[in-house]
Design a protein that fits this description.
Order of helices and strands: HHHHHHH
Shape: extended
Structural class: mainly alpha
Number of strands: 0
Distance between the termini: 81 Å
Oligomer: single chain
Number of helices: 7
Radius of gyration: 27 Å
Length: 163
């Protein structure tokens, strides 16, 4: 009986040791592990991206807190954007730390406009009878943004070529 128990204990300890040596934490060391790519994809999508988005949200909350603390007329989101710009410019936060979260949000940007667009519907009375004016404003602002983006791009390309 003691021999059987000892064998079982040894077998279990070997299996536990094997499981721990090939655990999730050591997946990066394995060369031919079939689920390695799937785990990397899961890690990127389910762990890293939400953490990076949470970091961006904390920066936004810091901006909102500064706005409320000093009673500023500048929106907290703009202050948060300035904080993020400062952190990235001074290299206090490296770009790669936020890269995947930002890419995810930019890829899904149209979904963030849906609540704002639906919210405008509740103020439809403000826009009644001003359809032509809204079209002119929309076309003008689109042309202005396109022209400014083109100029900035040309300036950046010219500056890079000179360097």
């Amino acid at each position: 009986m003691n021999y059987v128990f000892h064998n079982l204990q040894r077998t279990l300890s070997l299996k536990i040791e094997w499981i721990l040596s090939y655990s999730i934490f050591n997946l990066t060391k394995l060369q031919n592990f079939p689920w390695k790519e799937g785990f990397k994809l899961f890690k990127d999508k389910a762990i890293i991206i939400p953490i990076q988005i949470a970091m961006l949200y904390l920066i936004y909350l810091a901006g909102k807190g500064i706005q409320n603390l000093f009673n500023l007329f500048i929106p907290g989101s703009v202050i948060g954007l300035l904080i993020l710009f400062t952190l990235l410019s001074l290299k206090l936060v490296p770009e790669w730390i936020l890269q995947q979260g930002v890419s995810f949000m930019v890829r899904h940007l149209p979904f963030f406009f849906i609540p704002a667009t639906v919210g405008i519907i509740s103020y439809a009375y403000v826009f009644q009878g001003k359809g032509v004016l809204l079209i002119v404003i929309g076309l003008f602002s689109t042309a202005l943004v396109m022209a400014l983006a083109g100029r900035v791009t040309q300036w950046m390309v010219k500056r890079r070529e000179e360097a």
